[in-house]
UniProtKB/TrEMBL annotation:
GO terms for molecular function: phosphatidylinositol binding. Residues 104-233 form the Ysc84 actin-binding domain. Transmembrane segments: none annotated. This is Ysc84 actin-binding domain-containing protein.
Length: 241
């Protein structure tokens, strides 16, 4: 019988005896928390709606830099967390993070440089676990992207169509992407994109533990991520008021 005396959103933490890794997680938690706030308060139809945090299965936070002159190259990094529990008041508990890298190569007509910060709301367990795979192809892009310090949708085609919303034919695998971009990039190209786990960082955190088990809540998380967990819960609760 489950013990209901302890709220489902209470965390258990583990420690990492690596100062550089702790700084990395602390920095990422602060960045991701600020990004959620910026996206929610950006205004307009492209703003992130707080309710998506109640509806999603997981969240991926991504930073990508993209540039080119004829041949476009993009690279970046990020991390993904899965929602493990949520009560009717909006309190939620999230998994420890799995860190990943992003790479992209495009052929076409492109000129300029752009950096993009994104939150991907993952609506199914399958889309969450995709980031734990050794290599995962995440789509192609055929579109025109011109951005200059404004909302631009999916990061320059990195994760799908150039729209703030990438909904596949199977809605159970929908991914809603919200982004802030900086720079100017005109791009008409077909791009192949891959994500793959950051093995060095994940190994320092979890050793040989399978990354899917991390996302399924089989390991304790880290106190460095607590500010992000709180920011997600506080934002999600505003949708219930």
């Amino acid at each position: 019988m489950a013990d209901h005396s302890v709220p489902s959103h209470v965390y258990e933490f583990q420690e990492v005896n690596d100062e550089a890794v702790n700084k990395h997680m602390t920095h990422d938690a602060a960045w991701a928390s600020e990004l959620i706030s910026k996206l929610v308060h950006s205004g307009g139809d492209d703003a992130m709606k707080p309710g998506i945090l109640n509806a999603c299965e997981g969240l991926a936070f991504v930073r990508v830099a993209k540039g080119g002159l004829g041949l476009t190259v993009a690279s970046g990094s990020g991390f993904v967390i899965r929602k493990l529990d949520q009560d009717r008041f909006g309190n939620s508990r999230w998994s420890a993070p799995v860190f990943f890298n992003v790479s992209q190569l495009g052929l076409g007509v492109a000129v300029g440089y752009e950096s993009v910060e994104s939150v991907l709301a993952l609506m199914s367990l399958a889309t969450v676990h995709r980031f734990a795979m050794d290599r995962s192809a995440v789509g192609t892009d055929l579109g025109l992207v011109t951005t200059q310090g404004a909302m631009s949708g999916v990061p320059a085609g990195t994760f799908g169509r150039t729209s703030h919303m990438d909904v596949q034919a199977d809605n159970s695998n929908a991914v809603f992407a919200y982004s802030l971009s900086h720079g100017l990039l005109a791009n008409i190209s077909i791009n192949g994109t891959e994500t793959y786990p950051n093995k060095e960082l994940n190994n320092k955190l979890y050793g040989d533990t399978p990354l899917e088990a991390v996302l399924d809540g089989k390991v304790k998380t880290f106190a460095d991520l607590l500010p992000l967990y709180r920011a997600i819960t506080d934002t999600a609760k505003t949708a219930l008021q």
